[in-house]
Design a protein that fits this description.
CATH superfamily: Glycosidases
Strand content: 5-15%
CATH topology: TIM Barrel
Strand order of the largest sheet: 5-4-3-2-1-9-8
Distance between the termini: 52 Å
CATH architecture: Alpha-Beta Barrel
Helix content: 25-40%
Number of domains: 1
Number of strands: 9
Number of helices: 11
Largest sheet: 7 strands, parallel
Radius of gyration: 20 Å
Structural class: alpha/beta
Order of helices and strands: HHEHHEHHEHHEHEEEEHEH
């Protein structure tokens, strides 16, 4: 065997050994057992920031328990610059007073407490960069202003600053938050393995067993060596069968929406179609997270709660996955 061939074999064995080690990642064992989780985009903005104070954590927790899900993913914030929890690091960096952009009420803390009696885990959603609609924060964290209301190019220096914000939440919530789903981890914005490691270290600072993933866009793949599970954002999930628990070392996981779009409160597929696909996925060790739409109208129902139609369908899906 030539030296070149020997080097090639060594590289192959090293790569195979790395994947094999990742596939022993016991931190994701609970995802296999949970099978199905729920996701909520609760997105405060200038016109509805006060709804954070009226969010009914007990009603939401009861609905999730009745549906039988074992984990719940909740947004800390997204693009507007308004957050569902206090964060002094964010306030200090962007120059905001407490309660001006980061809510004084700590919804994740209250949700974790409300979910605990039902043995439902809490996970959190956060973008990989400052809210793209808040120019004050964009400037403060050193990102370019253009494009307006769009994702900016990021680098390791920025990531270290943003990690300070992440770490404050991680340390505060500790073991009460089991995982994180980071959005906007796109290659074209400069997201890379080094940034992923910085963010992963930040979320594990408060809970070493917390799992994390970084969304590369609408796809199902292993994206970085710092992810514990695949982000798996999909619009048409039925086109993606699960081949087994591991996808190149990441826990196989999909995030998709139950309604006709993200945050919608209707249903787009019959119960039977969802039950068949989810049942096949979970039987092979995969996990599925389903986005449901929250209620924002306090006159119609408790703020944050899900529609009866989605609750009925979610129960049917969970029951099928547990057979």
């Amino acid at each position: 065997m030539s030296m070149l061939e020997k080097v090639g074999v060594a590289a192959f064995l090293m790569a195979a050994s790395t994947v094999a080690a990742a596939e022993k990642n016991s931190a994701t064992d609970w995802m296999v057992e949970a099978k199905v989780g729920a996701f909520m985009h609760f997105l405060p903005g200038p016109s509805n920031f006060q709804l954070v104070d009226t969010f009914d954590v007990q009603a939401v927790a009861k609905q999730l328990a009745d549906a039988g899900v074992r984990y719940f993913v909740f947004t800390l914030g997204q693009n507007s610059g308004y957050m569902n929890a206090p964060n002094s690091a964010y306030d200090a960096a962007a120059g905001y007073a407490a309660g001006e952009r980061c809510a004084k009420r700590d919804l994740p803390k209250e949700l974790a407490a409300a979910l605990k009696p039902y043995s439902i885990r809490l996970m959190l959603y956060l973008p990989c960069q400052t809210p793209n609609g808040d120019l004050r924060a964009v400037r403060a964290f050193g990102l370019p202003e253009a494009p307006a209301n769009g994702d900016r190019k990021i680098d390791l220096a920025f990531a270290q600053k943003w990690a300070g914000v992440i770490r404050e939440w991680s340390d505060r919530y500790g073991a009460s938050v089991s995982g994180w789903w980071f959005d906007g981890g796109y290659e074209w914005v400069g997201f890379n393995p080094a940034i992923a490691r910085v963010y992963s270290e930040a979320v594990k600072h408060g809970n070493p067993q917390a799992v994390a993933t970084f969304n590369p866009g609408v796809s199902l793949k292993r994206w970085t060596d710092s992810e514990d599970y695949t982000a798996g954002e999909l619009n048409d999930p039925f086109e993606h069968p699960c081949g087994g628990r591991w996808l190149e070392g990441s826990q196989w996981h999909v995030l998709t929406f139950l309604g006709k779009s993200w945050g919608a409160r209707d249903t787009r597929h019959p119960d039977e179609a969802w039950a068949k696909w989810v049942g096949e996925v979970t039987s092979k060790g995969g996990a599925v997270t389903l986005d449901l739409g929250p209620n924002y109208d306090a006159a119609a129902a408790p703020v944050g709660t899900f529609s009866d139609a989605q609750m009925k369908q979610l129960r049917a899906i969970v029951n099928a996955a547990r057979k």
